[in-house]
Amino acid sequence: MTSAGLNLSVKIGKPRLWQRLCGVADFSCPLSVSPLAFRDLGLPPMLSFFLGRSQGQVIGPAVLVGDEVSPGQALGKIDDKSFRPSPVAGVIRAVRECPDIQAGPGGTAVLIEPASAVTAPVFAALDAKSAAVEAVMERWRVAAIRLGNRPRSLLVDALSGTASLVVLVSDQEPGVRVAASLLAERGDDARRAVALLARVSGVQKLWVGAAATQSEAAGRLCPSSATGLLTLPARYPHTLAPMVAARTGDAQALVVSLETALAAYDAVVHGRLQEHKLLTLVNSRGASIENLQVAMGTRLSDLVAACNLRLHSGDKLVAGGLMGGTSQYSLEAAVDEGVDALVHVPGEEVVPFTDEPCINCGACIDVCPLRLQVQNIGRYSEFGKFSEARAYGLDACIECGLCASVCTARRPLLQLIRMAKRELAQQAAADEAVREASGGD
Amino acid sequence: MATEPILYTVGVAPHLRSRTSIAALNWTMVLALLPTEIAGAVGHAYGSASGGQVDLGTMSQTLTAVASGLGVEAASLWFLGIMGTLTMALGLGMLVEYLTQVLMRQPYRALDGHGALMGALLGLMMPPTTPWWVLFFGILLAIVLGKQLYGGIGGYAMHPAVVGWLILLLSWPHHLYPIGSASIAAASVWSVGATLAGGLFLWWQGCIRPQIPIAALASVAVFSLLFASRLNGGPLDQILDGHVILGAFFLATDATSSPANRRALWIYGAGFGFLTVLIRAFGVWPDAVPFAVLLMNILSPLLDRLKPRMREVRAS
Ligand code: SF4
Ligand code: SF4
Q1: Where does A47-116 sit in CATH, by number?
Q2: Cα A139 to Cα A424: distance, rounded to the nearest angstrom
Q3: Is the C-beta atom of A389 inside 6 A of ligand 2?
Q4: Domain ranges of chain B
Q5: Residues A105-152: pLDDT tens digits?
Q6: Radius of gyration of chain B from Cα atoms?
Q7: ipTM
Q8: Least CB-packed of A243, A344, A346, A375 within 10 Å?
Q9: Gap from CA of A410 to ligand 2 centroid (Å)
Q10: What's the rounded Cα separation, in Å, for the pair B246 and B185?
Q11: Which of A413, A416, A419 to mutate to test the pocket of ligand 1 (most atoms within 8 A of CB)?
């Protein structure tokens, strides 16, 4: 059990003595749930909003350089539909190519010089207990409440067609302490947010997912019997969204973070847009340094300066957690809903992947939470035999990345797994298209 | 203000990574063999094991002869000669590996220590009276035939050093099993103890998976009780005799030629012990360990079909 206040350094590949004696190459990766205060970084001189895509279509800019925008005004559009409401008032300074913080190059961002912090609500307040379901849903759509998943999707889109919903009040990645701190700070709001989601989301079953170490605080969030408490081991990767979903018995269950649930609640009750993102500054070994509250759209350059990070060539800057985050090549990228953590890995601590052959040591199998035959998945995927990889459990993989963390040959196993999944999905889509075309004749 | 642009390292997730590597694994194993080498050399040089029969055909003896001209005590020279031979075996393993990689246009991996480990193991499995060209030939066969022809590390099905050893045994049995001399690793109970210490060190370092040695030693003990009538000595004698400890900790645990799944490892280790005792009880060769390793290597892909049951994630 992790007690509050203990440091949470992560030991990868360093099993405890008893584990070694029993031949369990498991490793300890506890998640701390002790709250940490958020330091407000204030408004930076420039904010950047990445337009990206919506359901495959590229979102184009809806504003011109020099325009004044007011909070809630759409920054992007596809045809006549508007996207990406600006959470601030300010002047558009640039519309240009910018890297996406989760996927690298390839999109347009709108750069705004913010005038001042938003104080007044943008929308009319609704009553959480009595507002009509349609009104709430519409509010979530116009306020563009987005999930931090990959790729980001709108809460309303994700909700339609899910039977189970989990509000996750613990953090997913080592060192991140956003949800745990939020639960301590806004416990009452969290309870109301869960109640609101239970009322309007239309799912059959709502869960509150919490690490075992915080089940008491989490228990208070689910007063009604319709809401179940999902107790999770306080260890990575048991709080990872796909793992949590699997635990509900419905692998398609939608997992939303506490921060998203609270943003949805604020949009309804306080008429606010999500102006802030909370994130944890984590060190390269997975220990949290500090919690930050940053304006949505803050560029990494401003964030790095505010955190006093000294970056050098060869260092790695990771947005979004050590296990699943994206390493950045430019500080132009800006914080969005998915960035729960910022990690600076000094160059000398970077361990590069190699193309060495697998030596069949079995470390990956021992560490895999699902006991998949990772060594074979990796081998087959490497040589393009994706359907063979499936026979060894490819589809069950939750992409926690532990296998690649411990691999003796330093193989990019997670990358190989993702490639195989992607290729198979594309193949399936192509087959489907052929079938439809021939069926239509 | 003109500053150099900062170029960041970009890489795929995960970013929290263990620092282990193939090279770290192999060199740790080479290091863990050092106690065996010293104890074996001491055993042969100062003990009763061989010392006497000098025919100057061996590397160790040549070195001894060269150095004795400088007037050093004979036993110390004999010790240095054996250590020199083992070091040469290690270097030769790397050299042969490097050369084959040049010829095969493979990326150079000789520094990853695998060739060195194979050379060192092969050297240890021979008596100090073996002519140097036999050792050289063995290493050549081990690396070329046992390893590189299968594509190198990760590709071979059978332990290269054992393959090399077996070909030598079939070709020059009198050099590998001369009357009255044991191999360096089996010089005395001290060298076997040193091997055990090295093996435990590997276990502690996480370089080998403990299932294999545990199952192997247990099954040697059990089966030697079962076949007691055909063996001389009790279970402990069987374990301490010959290459059993070396086999259980250093040969059978080789990652590439052993199974990857835990359940398979238990069976693999137990099978190794069983075959060792069986061959000792009914076979003609004095040491059964290399045969047992090789047979289990061949079975290992089959054993790996014993996949662990996929762990279910259940609702709490
Ligand atoms: S990423 Fe690796 S360790 Fe994690 S579930 Fe998939 S195969 Fe297993
Ligand atoms: S950890 Fe790496 S080298 Fe070891 S079996 Fe798995 S993929 Fe192969």
Answers
A1: 2.40.50
A2: 37
A3: no
A4: 21-204, 208-306
A5: 878 999 999 987 767 788 888 888 888 999 999 999 999 999 988 888
A6: 21
A7: 0.86
A8: A346
A9: 8
A10: 8
A11: A413
